[in-house]
Amino acid sequence: MFGAQSIMLGFNQVVVAGGMENMSNAPFILQRNLSVQKMGHVQLKDVMVHAGLRDPCKGRCVGSCGELFLDKFCISHEA
């Protein structure tokens, strides 16, 4: 992002950029309101599966978005 911005702003003509994923350190979450539910079964949810890898508009896995795009525009996997 910073490399692209520096090119768009005219600070650089060429930028070498890198990054790393940090999904391995994503926490687990508890879904309950502690002020209402003081005890009982609570299930841990992986925040990456629950929030990070879900399309916020449709609620489906973002991995399926590419498949939907290919189907919609009749593009083969080979293309």
UniProtKB/TrEMBL annotation:
**Keyword vocabulary terms for this entry:** Acyltransferase, Transferase
Q: Which domain of life is it from?
A: Eukaryota
Molecular function terms in GO for this entry? acyltransferase activity, transferring groups other than amino-acyl groups
Q: Which residues form the Thiolase N-terminal domain?
A: 3-78
What Pfam family is a match, any one? Thiolase_N
Q: Which InterPro entries match?
A: Thiolase-like, Thiolase_N
Checking Gene3D superfamilies in the record gives: 3.40.47.10
Instruction: Check the record and name the PANTHER family matching this protein.
Output: ACETYL-COA ACETYLTRANSFERASE, MITOCHONDRIAL (PTHR18919:SF156), ACETYL-COA C-ACYLTRANSFERASE (PTHR18919)
What family is this protein classified in? Belongs to the thiolase-like superfamily. Thiolase family.
Tell me what this protein is called.
Thiolase N-terminal domain-containing protein
What organism does the record attribute this protein to?
Answer: Physcomitrium patens
